[in-house]
Amino acid sequence: MQTQPYPPNRQPKISSTKRLMPWLIVGGGAVVTLAGMVAMFGILVVVALTPERIPMGVRVAGILIGGQSSAVASQTLQNQFDNQQVSLIDGDRQWSISSGELGIRFDEQATLRLAQESPSNATVLPQFQIDLNQTQNALAALSNQINIPSLLGNPGRSMDIPVTLDRLRVDVSGELMDGILELDMFEVEPPTSEASSVYTGETTTHIVASGEELGLIAKDYNVAMNDIVALNNINDPNLLYVGQELLIPAAGVFAPTAADAPAAPTSQGKSILVSTSNQRIYAYENGQLVHSHLVSTGLSNTPTVLGDYSVYVKYAADDMSGPGYFLPQVPYTMYFFQGYAIHGTYWHNKFGRPMSHGCVNLPTEEAQWFFNWAEVGTPVRVI
């Protein structure tokens, strides 16, 4: 049977249902898509409005914040660690200072981030940031309370600030997680009772400052401690008080003459000599002594190197570090051999006695004098 073509004026009819079908499909898809978008938006809104919570059981140094929202946990942590009191410990002795005064700030955001990323029941450390310059100044200010002066027949104790700073630099969060900072201390040898010197009749009045000891006062004036004791009718040489007036059997602070000083390292130009035996530094020009002052060289377990060297670099301020210690922005630093330097010191005032990790410590104003006077290349002899 053959199919007859439609006449030109007659085409097959297409039902209205077939014409509407594509539009229904497109419209239905759009509705479904729109509904999905609305649902997704709703989910996002719910997530945004739902406070992020710390995983269950999480603690920060023993403080439970697990299950709390970030906002609540933040407040909990601030109450505990923001500007907390820190206990400085030396054996059975203890002092208290705020972390803010110590140059340490609680890092709330870093601590929260650690807590949020931790698994359930984890314990994390509180995070801190530290300003080591402020920490150094705070410890130096406390040294008069903490240090024990060396007395006749009894050694003293002194804070080893560089070592304590290095521990805090390496792991301030670990050191302060329990609010306790164990101080690094070292023993200071007691002064010796010297034989009486020849007294010429001239005197100088010395006003005792905070932290001063009779043995070092005597060394500064280059007189025997026994002579100061006798001249002032002192019953107990270990008992001094701030503001006390002492008559010193000498005409002013000791300034050595050429006869008192060791031989100059060179006869031409400028040169420096450091004597570890009498804890003094000497400046020479063309073989003539021009300046001198007491210093603190290395302790017995960290001695200053002996020998002939020269200043190879100078810094108005420099961060200094070595095995187990760190010092930020040490003033007027002149390196003469590897990490050994002549520099200013404001964390102790015990000049005239070994106190350093090998460097040559000077009062800051004296270090400035040597820094301005000496050039790179100036010979340095240590004996």
Features:
8 helices, 29% helix, Membrane-bound Lytic Murein Transglycosylase D, Chain A, 383 residues, L,D-transpeptidase catalytic domain-like, alpha+beta, four-stranded mixed beta sheet
- Tally of alpha and pi helices: 8
Q: Low-confidence runs (pLDDT<50, min 5 residues)?
A: 1-8, 42-50
Distance between the termini: 130 Å
Derived from helix and strand composition plus strand pairing, the structural class reads alpha+beta
The fraction of residues assigned to DSSP E strands is 25-35%
What percent of residues adopt helix (DSSP H or I)? Answer: 25-40%
Total domain modules: 3
How many extended strands? 21
Helix and strand pattern = HEEHEEEHEEHEHEEEHHEEEEEEEEEHE
